[in-house]
Amino acid sequence: MGVVDGVKGFVLSTPQRVVNTFKQADVGVFKQADTWKAFGIAVLMFVTISYAALSMFDSMDEIFASDAEPAPIPNMVFESLNRTGIESNVSNETGWIHLDEHRGSIIILDFMAHDCSNCHAVQEHIEDEMDEWHSQAEAAGKSLKIFGYGAWYIETLDYLNETSGAYHVPAYPTGLGSTEAGVLEDGTTLDPVRLFTTGGSGQIPVVMVIDEEGYIIAKEATGTPSDKWAKFDGVLQDALEGDVQDTMSNRIAWEEPDTSYVAVFVLGMVLSILVYFSPCAFPVLPGFISYYLSLGAREDELIAEGKLKTGMPSSWVIGLLSGVGMWTFFGVIGIVALLMGEAFTASGAVHYIAIFIAALLIVLGSMMLLGITSHLMGFVDNFVRKYSTTEADDTFTPRRNMYLYGIGYAAASIDCTAAAVLPFVLYLSTLGTFAIGVGLGGLMIGLLVLMVFVTVMVGMGRQVMINFLRRSTGMIKMVGSWMMIMAGISLTIYLTQPGLVSVVFG
Question: Per the omega criterion (within 30 degrees of 0), is the bond before 398 cis?
């Protein structure tokens, strides 16, 4: 009955708590010059980062390009949607597509998925142009065939054949692949995703043009290329209008990459910096650590009173214990997010989760800007307070306190970093189990190193950098708030208005 009453009380008090939360809003922030200074900085940073990201997408395949000699792609065998008049024209009697049966045709091969929003932009471009391409091929006496390859194997064939949300079933032949869909000449099977996505990462979309002899001659790894499809369409145009020799210089090599997770590990390390210096948590860190270190001068007194069993921990031990506490929190968050990610992927809700994350960016950014503390993880803070001790208690447990503080610090940072941590974990889930361990390992090690480093610096009395960061926290927080809002708005438009994105980016 106590549990029921507790839940009832929580529900009934929620409206008032929401009201109290929004009473914190400081609308006067918009009258402050620093707010608009931060806005200008955020605009500049957002535009720069966005441009860099687009450029990175365009060049990523070149960066990770194989140094092998170009070769015809292996045969690909996968089950089709088997629609009359669409797949039935290019599949065998069982409804399976064998790509080598279409050697001699120019092929557009689209690695796609139902819930891959960027894939929808690729599909839209293909469907807008396919009639014209087919007409050009016919006029030149050539054969053009377009295939959609379902590259998220957790999605089912029935799901690919289900129009919903931003997705509609492609107008061109489509099927569902598998980790054994690629077939080499010796009969060995392999995963085409490992062969044709950037660095074998499995990140889609990927769309390729394959010439009559089976060589890749054009490849695009985003639905919104910065050149508005000029390079991709240009190579295809040359292939449709000329001879095979005309595009031989465009041939792209492929090979199954050796699995390297250095980039994933580094990405986790970079994210650890964002989490550690979160404006929601960092301002209180130096003072708290300084307090604990100052207690070292009183350890004899505390031991004599029986409140302390051993000496006060050193600065590096304090840092290590706090770091392990952060490990604990983000380890739990990682496990939960991973399980949720798998469930959402299986349910086909990935697209809607992405929209939720975009909206979360806008909400959290606005709350930060207005000075509203969201306390998303307030229950963790209550847990930390419950099991921590003070000098006034009969027994003082500084080591346990610092471990619990690490948990609480990580929880406090979530208000500012949830919208970055969750997508990162979901991204790792698409790369496989080992990648999850490597990526989260980078995050964990980064947090531990930073916590130990900062704690030791405080212990040595070298707080110049830390004091600077504390003084700059207000501006950092406002810039971060504006950038979160801008990112959220941009992502929302990208995920919900593919037509507008196509107009802007081609």
Answer: no
Q: Position 143: which residue type?
A: S
Give the mean model confidence (pLDDT) for residues 68-91: 93
In contact, 365 and 357? CB cutoff 8 Å:
no
Q: Which residue has the higher pLDDT, 420 or 28?
A: 28
Positive/negative CA dihedral, 433, 439, 442, 447:
negative
CA distance 271 to 274: 5
Alpha helices, H only, 84-184: 117-139, 157-160
* 181-196 average pLDDT score: 91
Banded pLDDT at 263 (limits 50, 70, 90): low
In the chain, the amino acid numbered 289 is I
pLDDT band at 220 (very low <50, low <70, confident <90, very high): very high
Residue 101: what pLDDT? 95
**Topology (CATH) of 65-250:** Glutaredoxin (3.40.30)
> How far, in Å, CA of 174 to CA of 112, rounded?
9
Query: How far apart (Å, rounded) are the C-alpha atoms in residues 93 and 96?
Result: 8
Global pTM exceeds 0.90: no
Contact 494, 117 (CB under 8 A): yes
- Name 297's Cβ contacts closer than 8 Å, sequence gap at least 6: none
Contact 302, 295 (CB under 8 A): yes
Q: Which of 140-154, 257-271, 300-314 has the highest mean pLDDT?
A: 140-154
**Each residue's pLDDT tens digit, 311-339:** 778 778 888 888 898 888 877 876 776 66
- In angstroms, the CA 454 to CA 295 distance is 18
The DSSP H or E segment spanning 207 is strand 206-210
DSSP codes, 284-344: GHHHHHHHHHHGGGGHHHHHHTTS-SSPPPPHHHHHHHHHHHHHHHHHHHHHHHHHHHHHH
Which residue ranges does the chain devote to CATH 3.40.30.10? 65-250
Q: Which of 233, 52, 59, 79 is nearest to 149 (CA)?
A: 79
Between CA 141 and CA 262 the distance in angstroms is 48
